[in-house]
Amino acid sequence: MKxxxxxxxxxxEELEGNTWPDPPEGSTSLVESVHALRRRPVGDLxxxxxxRLIGQNVGLPWLLPLAVEFLRDTAPHxxxxxxxxxxxxxxxxxxxxxxxxxxxxxxxxxxxxxxxLTDLSPYIQRDIRRFRAAFPSGD
Length: 139
Known about the structure:
Layout: H1 12-16, H2 29-37, H3 47-55, H4 60-81, H5 87-93, H6 97-102, H7 104-114, H8 122-134
Helix pairs in contact: 3-4, 3-5, 4-7
């Protein structure tokens, strides 16, 4: 995976050049949602929708940079507000090591974002420990 230029008006399908068929009849709401979100312009996706797609490992070369940018921009405000338990942060932190190996600069940026967050839920703290164990600072 390489960091690619991003046109926020394009969908994941357009960016990948890969159109998925409609989900099979009787698919779960998650499957239907992911299929629909792949067709929307990435610039229109909400943080919750980014979290859903990232959590399913969809569009990572384009969505991880967007998610990290959003987290970077909101982390100081969130830290000032107290308790922080965020689906997007969790989705980002829980990607597999091989994903982060493809994006080492983003992994370092995520680590920097984590340093400003306080009063985190136990679930996020667990995700942070696992993320940092895979990517020790200074490596």
